[in-house]
Amino acid sequence: MPRHTKPIRPLVLIVEDDQQTAYLVAFMLNRNVTDYNTIIMWDSERADYKTFDYRQVRCVIIDLLMPAPGGAEIIQWLKKTYPAIRLILITGLDPKLISSAVVEAADKVLTKPFSMTEIRLAIEQED
């Protein structure tokens, strides 16, 4: 008798200091069985971001403006250390005001407010 197992859902890490935004993005990505598993990295965990196990992570959705370490520092480290992980930068700033090094490290930059469709397309887009 064959065993039926659920397919493993892609893991999306959300790095956001605003709880409401983090929970909303996680809820939208988790709401359907076929969508994504999510983990939220809170402030206390963000201090040790280099020790997190990223091996199962498909995508990181990261806010730019957060208390240290900020999104710019983390996204540049991730791009160097885990280049296969898709990096989506979310910000309330005009993208023209963001350092070009940070923008280049991100696979996609989304300006708040963004829609669930924009998040999904950014995750699923193949470069």
- What distance lies between the first and last C-alpha atoms, to the nearest angstrom? 41 Å
Fold-level CATH name:
Rossmann fold
Briefly note the structural class of the backbone. alpha/beta
Helix content: 25-40%
Count of domains: 1
Give the spatial strand order of the biggest sheet.
2-1-3-4-5
CATH hierarchy, class: Alpha Beta
Radius of gyration: 15 Å
Q: Main sheet? A: 5 strands, parallel
CATH architecture: 3-Layer(aba) Sandwich
Net shape: globular
Number of extended strands: 5
Give me the number of helical elements: 5
Features:
single chain, 127 residues, alpha/beta, Rossmann fold, 5-stranded parallel β-sheet, 5 helices, 33% helix, 21% strand, globular
Question: Could you describe the 3D structure shown?
Answer:
- Strands 2-1-3-4-5 form a five-stranded parallel beta sheet, with helices on both faces.
- The protein is 33% helix and 21% strand.
- The longest helix has 12 residues, at 19-30.
- It has a single domain, classed as Response regulator (Rossmann fold, 3-Layer(aba) Sandwich).
- The protein is α/β, with parallel strands linked by helices and 127 residues long.
How is this fold's topology laid out?
Layout: E1 11-15, H1 19-30, E2 37-41, H2 43-46, E3 57-63, H3 71-81, E4 86-91, H4 100-105, E5 108-111, H5 116-124
Parallel strand pairs: 1-2, 1-3, 3-4, 4-5
Brief summary:
This protein is an alpha/beta fold and 127 residues long.
